[in-house]
Structures are given as structure tokens and as C-alpha cells.
Amino acid sequence: MPVSLLLNVAYDWVPPFKLHTLHIGGCRVGHGFWALIQSQTELVYISLYNTFISDSIEKWLSKISSKVKYLDLSYNNFSGRLPLQLKFPKLQIIRLGHNQLEGPLPLWPTNVNILDLQSNSFSGPIPSNLDQLMQELNSLDVSENNLNSTIPLSICNMQNMARISLSINQLFGEFPQRWSLWSVIQLIDVSYNNLSGTILNSMGIPFSLM
């Protein structure tokens, strides 16, 4: 379906309002739109999916309000690497899937619940201390990237994990034999990797998967 709407904003426009919610999807935003984002210091909910933005992800994240709790910039053309630190202490959901992001997976000490980085070009290992950095994580999607490592045992220590998708990467080795520790798990997708070994009956299957 063709995009029929273009939302253009002048670089020097100073909006006479302060938004708490910004939800735009399926239309183009102009090159000066980031200036509007920078002026909105009270934003809590930001959804700009499929808005044809081609820019540096680090530049945009530096302009967004530190009060944001929900951030969706998926289905765009953001490029570059994610910053080493996030300035969003209240962030709960971050969706950056279907962009052109690269580099290693971020090592953020954060209380994020949902992290969606699918369909990018992240490479390297899954952080071995993910359980310590993102203790509140309950949904992780890093499918369709270029991750090339084993699945760390520590990932099984994440007691709140309900959904995890690691499919279509270059992961190798055996799947951790401790998944019974995930008491609330609902989905595990590790398809289209180079994993080996067997799933042992002695591992136990979480009740939530039965």
C-alpha cells in the first residue's frame, strides 16, 4: 500500500505544546522531525514505526525525553550502533526491530521488560551477564541477526522470562540444560541456528510449556 501522507516539520519550528504520547505509523516524516522530538521533554510514549526514517540511531536516542517508558522505532532505516548507556531510567519497552543496526548486543543495566531487536545486523555473542544487567526482562527477540556464540547458561537464571526468540542467527553448541528454571516460559524459538546435542528428559519441562 503506497504511503500517501508526508508529515514535514521545519527545523526552526517551536511547538506551543508538550506531548505525553506520540504515535505515528505508516507515513513518512520529514528530515526535521527529530527537532520536534527534541522539543518534547515530557514524552512518555513514543511510537514511530514504519515512518521511513533514515538516520543515526544514537543521534535520535540522544534527543528523546529521558522520561520515556515506551519506545518503538521499528520498521525504519536507522543505522549505526546503539549507545553504551541508556539515559532512560523508566524505560520498560523498547522496540528497534527491522532496522539496520549493527555492532554487539547492548549491555544495558536497565529494568526493561520487553526488548525487541529482531531483523538487524547485530553480531558477536549473547552477553553472558544478561541475567544481571536486565533482571526484569520477560520478552527477548534478537532473531534474524548475525549473533555467533553459544547460548550462555546465565540466560536460564532469568526468572521472569516468558518469551525468547534467538532464531535465524549463527548460534552453535548445545542448548543450556537448565531451562526448567524458567517457571513462566511460554515460547522458546532457537530454530535456524547451528545448535547440536539432545534435549534430555532429566532437564524437566517448565509447567508453563505443557
TrEMBL record:
Membrane topology of the entry: Single-pass type I membrane protein
Protein name (Swiss-Prot/TrEMBL): Leucine-rich repeat receptor-like protein CLAVATA2
Species classification: Eukaryota, Viridiplantae, Streptophyta, Embryophyta, Tracheophyta
UniProt entry keywords in alphabetical sequence: Glycoprotein, Leucine-rich repeat, Membrane, Receptor, Repeat, Signal, Transmembrane, Transmembrane helix
Cellular location(s): Membrane
Repeat is among the record's keywords: yes
InterPro entries for this protein: Leu-rich_rpt (IPR001611), LRR_dom_sf (IPR032675), RLP23-like (IPR046956)
Classification via Pfam families: LRR_1
Any one cellular-component term (Gene Ontology): membrane
